[in-house]
C-alpha cells in the first residue's frame, strides 16, 4: 500500500474511533446515571462496559499510529502487525470485562434480587442499542474498506 493510501486509511480509522470515543463517553454517563436512578444493575454494568470501550478505542488509536508507520530497516514490510496486535489486546479486554459482568450478574441472580421496571431505563437501553449499532456499521464499513482487523 502506498504512503498516501496508508495515511488516508489511518485518518479514516482515527476519525471513526474518535466518534466512537465520544459516543461511548456519553453513553457511559447516561447508562450509569439512569441505571443507578432506576436500580438497574444491568444498565450500570453496560455503562461500565461502555467505559471499557474507551480503552479499546485508545488501543485502536495506538495500533493505527504504530501500524501506519513507514517501512524501515528493521521492518522492511512496514508495521502493519501492530494493528493486529492491538486487535488481540481489544479481544482480551472484552473477555475480562464480560467475565466481570457475568460474575456480578450471577451474584445478583443467586441473591434473587428483583429490580423494579422503569421506562427511562428501557429508553436508555434502546438509545444505547441504536447508537452502538450505528457505530458498528460505520466502523465495519471503514474496516472492510481499509482491510483493517
Briefly, what is this?
This protein has 149 residues and is mainly alpha-helical. The chain has one domain (3-144). It has helices at residues 3-38, 41-67, 81-110, 119-146.
What is the terminal separation in angstroms? Answer: 16 Å
The percentage helix is: over 70%
Give helix and strand order, one letter per element, not per position: HHHH
Q: Which residue ranges are poorly predicted, with pLDDT under 50 across at least 5 consecutive positions? A: none
The total number of structural domains is 1
Q: Over the alpha carbons, how many angstroms does the gyration radius reach?
A: 19 Å
Q: Look at the structure and give the mean pLDDT.
A: 78
**Structural class, judged by helices and strands?**
mainly alpha
Percent strand: under 5%
